[in-house]
Amino acid sequence: MAAAKLLIDRVIPSRQGAPVSFHIRPLKTPEDCAFAYADLLDDVGAGRLTPEEAQTISSIVGKRAELFPSIELAAEIEALKAQLAVVVGAPRPSSPIRRPFAIT
């Protein structure tokens, strides 16, 4: 029986850790991430989360916070492209003829 359990544990490993019940605010701005950190600290202080659980959740919040500068930069690049297109004009279609020629 022990051998069968060992085989099953190898084929279907048991889940590490337990699910955590934690309500987190939507992380739509960097400020939301800062407030989420404050919520985590409050929950650790109140004993609703262990420090290890809070650390795991805070790493997820931190990764989300790291995305905001990239998203803002991409939006700024698109805005600059739109401004440049207005100033320069629409791109002209390329001609199949590379050099103009004269008929004599």
Secondary-structure topology with pairs:
Layout: H1 2-11, H2 30-46, H3 51-88
Give an overview in words.
With 104 residues, the chain is mainly α. It has a domain at 25-87. It is 62% helix and 0% strand. It has helices at 2-11, 30-46, 51-88. The longest helix has 38 residues, at 51-88. The chain is elongated, with a radius of gyration of 28 Å. The termini are far apart. The model has no long low-confidence stretch (mean pLDDT 83).
Structure keywords:
3 helices, elongated, 104 residues, mainly alpha
Short account of what is shown:
This protein is an all-alpha fold and 104 residues long. The protein has helices at residues 2-11, 30-46, 51-88. Helices cover 62% and strands 0% of the residues.
Q: Distance between the terminal alpha carbons, to the nearest Å?
A: 98 Å
Classify the secondary structure makeup into a structural class.
Answer: mainly alpha
Q: What would you report as the Rg, rounded to the nearest angstrom?
A: 28 Å
Order of helices and strands: HHH
